[in-house]
Design a protein that fits this description.
alpha/beta, Rossmann fold, five-stranded parallel sheet, 15 helices
Length: 427
């Protein structure tokens, strides 16, 4: 089991508190494994295994349990007489009213609770109201490139990796960092696929099954159980998903999507499309980055961008084509910034768009452009010009795949993307 330290540290920091620890994220990003990592850590710290209780809600053991009262009494019966038990609930979103059972266990028992869920409805407004202030969410993503290297068993040299740096892998083969990044960009970072050299047929079959599970079980079936009639058209859902996937990194509006659907014989209303997009966001398939007016220091209501959870999923949906590297790079950088804890917006200036405005909790801010290459004069000017016109002193950065490049131009730092993603170069 490969430790994903960031998430384990987050769980550990809230261990033995009154807060319910809620791990959220897309299916198969490693949430269940993270619960097992936490279990192993507790045992390693001296907690008797008899105090650890796991409830895998998708197991046949709990098949048919849909009532929160039944869930509460099953859990209560199992932990009876156990001093300070640890409760692990995996994939709770299918249990209607689960939050009532969890809140009652929290109130009635001296216990430590950890749960996972693959749909953001798990923490919707009505649920959050019931346990408001009594839970902490730990959002989980598919692997970052640095984590991917860990999963491939890459033995990294000291210092600057460089995209041409040769590394030894867990299977004792050798590869360049750049070739590993090419694999990562094409096939993504789902943990199951990241432990060996990817094979296109295997990756495609795995992601196809994952995608169908998300669409059928996490979106359509969930909406049916909620009694909603909004998300019922599977073809429309998949068309909208395909549109968003094809347009990662492009400014997108509901009107534009509705217009495109109409042109392709699938007329729909703005309200319906908006509901379908919300369902895709709730399933963690996409993240929206709103536009930020840099000069006016305000969020803009229109023209935001959508980014997919994993480039492997994107390539499965839209085809493994080599002509789309720029937008895949932008998506990978977006996901890395989110992983690093930044709030990410798309920057707007009259002089042009800034790919990302990344804001930290301590008031720091970075303006970032992402480009495959900036070796030509035209491309270099296109990337640098908007950054030069930003009227403040926060750091301005261009991330590029170029291996040979200037490190500074007019006070704008230029960093190799692979060096940034592996931690060899900081923002």
């Amino acid at each position: 089991m490969i430790i994903r330290q960031k998430y384990l540290d987050a769980l550990t920091s809230f261990q033995d508190t009154d807060l319910v620890k809620v791990i959220t994220g897309i299916r198969r990003c490693g949430k269940s494994t993270m619960l097992e990592m936490m279990r192993q850590k507790l045992v390693g710290d001296g907690v008797d295994p008899s105090r650890l209780f796991t409830f895998k809600m998708e197991s046949m053991e709990f098949d048919g349990i849909e009532d929160y009262r039944e869930l509460y009494h099953i859990a209560l019966d199992r932990i009876k007489g156990v001093e300070h038990p640890y409760l692990f609930f995996d994939e709770l979103q299918n249990i209607e009213g689960w939050e009532k059972a969890i809140n009652s266990l929290r109130v009635d028992c001296d216990c430590d609770i950890y749960i996972t869920g693959s749909n953001a409805f798990l923490l919707s407004s009505e649920i959050a109201t019931l346990i408001s202030g009594r839970y902490v969410e730990i959002p989980m993503q598919t692997l970052t490139f640095s984590e991917y290297l860990d999963f491939r068993g890459a033995s990294l040299p000291e210092g600057d990796l460089g995209s041409s740096g040769v590394v030894q892998l867990g299977d004792r083969s050798f590869a360049t960092t750049k070739s590993l990044f090419t694999d990562f960009m094409a096939y993504g970072g789902f943990p199951y696929l990241a432990t060996k050299k990817p094979e296109k047929a295997v990756c495609s079959a795995y992601i196809r099954d994952l995608y169908q599970t998300i669409v059928v079980r996490d979106i359509l079936a969930r909406e049916k159980r909620r009694g909603h009639k909004t998300i019922t058209d599977r073809k429309l859902l998949e068309r909208i998903c395909l549109y968003l996937s094809d347009n990662i990194g492009n400014k997108t509006s509901i009107n534009k999507i509705v217009g495109t659907l109409k042109e392709n014989g699938a007329a729909s209303s703005n309200k319906t499309v908006d509901s379908y997009i919300e369902a895709l966001l709730e399933a963690y398939l996409f993240t929206r980055a709103d536009r930020f007016d840099i000069k006016g220091r305000a969020l803009l209501a229109t023209g935001g961008k959508y980014y997919i959870c994993d480039t492997g999923l994107r390539n499965h949906l839209n085809g493994y084509r080599g002509s789309d590297t720029g937008r895949l790079l932008e998506n990978i950088v977006h996901n890395q910034l989110v992983f690093d804890g930044y709030t990410v917006h798309v920057g707007h200036l009259r002089a042009g768009e800034i790919d990302f405005v990344a804001s930290g909790n301590s008031g720091e801010r970075f303006y970032i452009q992402v480009t495959e290459t900036m070796l030509s004069e035209e491309t270099r000017e296109r990337e640098l010009a908007p950054l030069r016109k930003i009227p403040d002193e926060f750091p301005k950065i261009v991330l590029t795949l170029d291996e040979v490049h200037p490190t500074d131009e007019d006070g704008i730092r230029i960093i190799n993307i692979i060096d940034y993603l592996t931690g060899s170069a900081e923002l």
